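Checked the freezer inventory, then went back to the computational side. Two predictions to log before the end of the day. The first one is the construct we discussed on Monday; recording sequence and tokens without edits.
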Amino acid sequence: MADATGLRVETRLAVLGRPTGPGQPLNVPIVPASNFRAAPGGTAGREYSRDDGTPGWEALEELVGDLEGGSAVCFSSGMAAIAAVLELLPVGARVVVPRDSYTGLRALLADGAAAGGRWAVTTVDVTDAGALAAVADADLVWLETPSNPLLDVVDVAAVAAAAGALVAVDNTFATPLLQNPLALGADFAVHSATKFIGGHSDLLLGVVVCRRPEDRARLVRRREVAGATPGALEAFLALRGARTLAVRLRQAQESAGELARRLAAHPAVGRVRYPGLPGDPHAALAARQMRGPGAVLAFEVADAATADAVCAGVRVIASATSVGGVESTIERRAKLPGQEHVPAGLVRLSVGCEHVEDLWADLAAALDAGA
């Protein structure tokens, strides 16, 4: 995947957002400053980081914006990024949200709906072609593809064509390397950079990438007045993590595909949800819309008790709630509030960079013991 300069994505990850010129540091340094000396005579210049940003934010925004083909704005977390997009809507706006989507998003929408009708929320199964009629008169359609935790894949171009207004896509699971929602007609691509972009489970950070410059200006204003600014260290770590995204994702995705195939053949496992499997109901759409199925999968065992036993029985894989790190993580998602639609025995697995044979030995032993 090359850009207008002809540079492929692996090269852009390595070179974009770096200082240039003799004597400049190769990496953007951490600038732990809130205040800057004012330019003489009131001329333009950086004065206060909440208003004017920092070199670290700007470097990360340059990189992620380039990868997504738009203009990026960084926030203090993925949830702050989500909230900023929703705050662009007028009071009473109608928001369509998928049945299977991030619990934090749906909790925020529920709070807003309950607080005097900040927005009206309609929940749909966006994988159902009949659901497209529900998006025609929405003010915002929020998509998540692949979804968390059922790994549903949504036809972004079809929804964008049917939608009456704005379309935002949570692109966290796919990353900009595997899917570019703006090119498919979306207005916003949203990332929890806490996950694959940062890649090391050591930061909280969110990014929104906009198709239109005027939307970026509105989001910068939301960040300024709401104060959801990323920390200097977090921006540094996210940029450093992004440099290796292509290498990490390639390894993790290859292992995820192999584990999905082996899990599908294991007697203790029912359905395996992974759009890279030929029999997956989303395989054809994923092949058309994405450049790879990603590094997250889900599989179903007999019941909640069995799933809990599997999660407790692994030793190499960490029983933990987040995804996208170099370490593999596993969780029974139905244990969380708001996940009533998730099968009780569904286990989500985020595949990291460990050797696939060690991961399989760990999983197989836990499955055999828990069955």
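The second is the one RB wanted added to the comparison set:
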Amino acid sequence: MRLLLIRHGQTPANVTGVLDAEVPGPGLTELGQQQADALPAALADRGIERLFVSSMVRTHVTAAPLAAALGLEPVELPGLREIEAGDLQGQRDRTSVQLYISTVHGWSAGDRASRMPGGESGDDFFARYDDAVQQILATGVEVAAAFSHGAAIRTWASAVSQNTPDEFGTQRHLENTGIVEVEGSFEDGWRLVDWEGEPVGGEQLVDRTAQDPTGDAF
């Protein structure tokens, strides 16, 4: 199966640099809606057969234009949600952001037993994200798109892809509506096909002033 992991459009927290992984969370900014509206034209030729979203509002809103264009009903998979911020939820100070990032970086490097302060461990995260992807695989489609989140996509994709170092995802940025494309399965292994770090709608949809901690290289 080929799986397109699409990051949601810009949220207010992405602009201000706030760590926000609370469910269901906020919707999109005006720019975020423009990013979502650009997806149907950008992905028209990808052969997408099924759409999936997390339990967070921002993925539902981002997926809506593409779902309408393709005539598909997105399926909610809570396991696709962002990595929990735990005690760091709602914080934006440098110490909190660095602690969040260093914890996630450790998971990507193999220390999955470590835990986000007041939140999930790396083992917890990979178990629920793997389960979500397994549910996508079970549909039997050849091409699927899953709307997910910056830290979650980068951590999972870099760890499972056999043709990248474990820390690859922490060294690459992933702007809102950027796409990480992988193919394979858990049985045969996963391979990174493409890492589109910029919004698929083009350079004009990048906000260079945003203080986005989960989209920047860690």
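For RB: The first strand starts at residue 2 and ends at 7. The first helix runs from residue 12 to 16. Let me know if you want it refolded.
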